[in-house]
Amino acid sequence: HAKHPRNAGALEVLTHRGKAQNALCGDEAEIFLNVKKGVLADIGYEIQGCILSKAALSMVSESMKGKKLIMIARSSAGDVFKLLGFIPTPSRTKCVLFGFEAIRDLLSRG
Questions:
Q1: CA 90/CA 99 separation, integer angstroms
Q2: Which H or E run includes 51?
Q3: For 74, which of 4, 60, 61, 107 is 20 to 30 Å away at the CA?
Q4: Which DSSP helix (H) or strand (E) runs through 10?
């Protein structure tokens, strides 16, 4: 996922667009979402960040694509750690959760 990120790039058709920044390390992302009938139909992003935040956002985007918004809203940091297969150190937790939190925040704003 770090070398070959999934869903990277802007979407041509979208319903949500937002920017996020990790103040701790300077990672920045622009998130593009296309929601149809309560489902995250498509997702794209452009990210400038560390390899961990890039890989995590790629994996999270793959896992969220096609899911109902209610299921995304119920997901947690623990789900992300399970997806990645490890619990990061406290200093890297924000990197791992950066994209996940940005997507959920964007969806919560409608």
A1: 17
A2: helix 51-64
A3: 4
A4: none
